[in-house]
Amino acid sequence: MHESDNAALSGDYEVLIIGGGAAGLAAALTLGRLRRKVLLCDDQQPRNQAAAHMYNFPGYDGAAPELWRSQVRKDLQKYPSLSSQTTRVMKIAQTGTGFEAQLASGGRVSAQKVLLAYGMKDRLPDIPNLAELWGDTAVHCPFCHGFEFQDQALALVGDGEMALHLLSMLLGLSADLMLLTQGPSQLTPEQKQKIAAKNIHLVETPIQTLEHTGPKLEAIVFADGKRISRDVLYVQTAFPVHLSAHLGEDLGCKVTDFGWYEVDAFGKTTVEGVYAAGDIAGTHGMSVVNSAAFGSTAGARIAGELLLQKSGF
Ligand SMILES: Cc1cc2nc3c(=O)[nH]c(=O)nc-3n(C[C@H](O)[C@H](O)[C@H](O)COP(=O)(O)OP(=O)(O)OC[C@H]3O[C@@H](n4cnc5c(N)ncnc54)[C@H](O)[C@@H]3O)c2cc1C
Question: Could you give the dihedral angle defined by the CA atoms of residues 42, 47, 53 and 54, in that order, rounded to the nearest 10 degrees?
């Protein structure tokens, strides 16, 4: 892979990959192995950048997320048809033969196919000190960060059916659970009874602040002055999710009610020549291993389509 500096790039590529997290890197590897001419643009703000450890990724369980990404970038050096630049894709438009993109580095490139792999941004509730703890003792996913917190004092900020779903998973980790709804709960009296039967304490009073020592949560202070010691705060993901860019929408790709792009089993969006992988492809992402797997699937599909077209078969 040729890594270009900040120079304004120009040129024609077969594939433009927008985003170099798990999905984009895996797709580049797959495309490079069939010698497709690819440009990977990434502005290096992956969703898990706040976390020191990445879990539930076979072979890298507990490693620093950047360790895995840098190893993949090293692997990509073997493939001469790949190019990359650390830059943001600012704009993209369809042309008669494919797509033209404008890069923050000043470049303008064209490509026959585009893979959107730009991930999402977590929209955190407005709770003082939450951002400081995010990725350490304030997290969103029990599979990513859970086993390490087993039998500790856990709380979940959330409500409704989604909160019940998350609480059922958290019960696999600890019996000391609280549900914090930040106002009157949407749960039915029957649902409230069910969680009370599991000794899950429901607090409807809004959180005033989080007390912490460095990255360690110590206690939650509520608007009525009550202070409750807790080790970990889980935060329910807000839907619709907030994508890191809206280039797909600019191209006309359909977005689902969850906020991610509608794709088929191979990452094809509703616009010909445009693919999506990783967290922005919804349930095909939402973790590093799933995003990498789906990036690889989309990469293979794109390579297959390009080569079929080229061969004339
Ligand atoms: C705090 C936290 C901890 C997590 N821990 C884990 C864990 O332990 N295990 C796990 O499996 N999952 C974990 N996740 C989830 C995981 O981070 C995501 O599922 C995964 O990163 C999705 O990969 P992706 O390639 O879709 O997107 P990302 O990894 O977010 O990568 C997208 C890339 O695209 C770039 N980009 C965005 N817009 C543009 C643009 N316009 N032009 C160029 N580049 C652009 C971004 O800067 C970024 O580098 C965690 C998430 C959070 C929030």
Answer: -90
pTM of the model: 0.97
Question: Do both 207 and 144 map to the same domain?
Answer: yes
Q: Which of 235, 263, 284 is the last residue of a domain?
A: 235
Residue nearest (by alpha carbon) to ligand 1 atom 51: 48
Residues 52 and 189 placed together within one structural domain of the fold = no
The residues lining ligand 1, judged by C-beta closer than 6 Å to any ligand atom, are 18-24, 41-48, 50-51, 54-57, 88-89, 117-119, 122, 134-135, 139-140, 144, 244-245, 278-279, 285-289, 291
230 backbone dihedrals φ, ψ, rounded to 5°: -145, 150
Residues ≥6 apart with Cβ < 8 Å to 271 = 248, 251, 252, 253
pLDDT tens-digit profile of 272-299? 999 999 999 998 989 999 999 999 999 9
Relative to the CA of 134, which ligand 1 atom is closest?
Answer: 1
Q: How many domains in the chain?
A: 2
pLDDT digits (tens, 9 = 90+) for 62-79: 999 999 999 999 999 999
Does residue 167 share a domain with residue 136?
yes
Do 231 and 244 fall within a single domain?
A: no
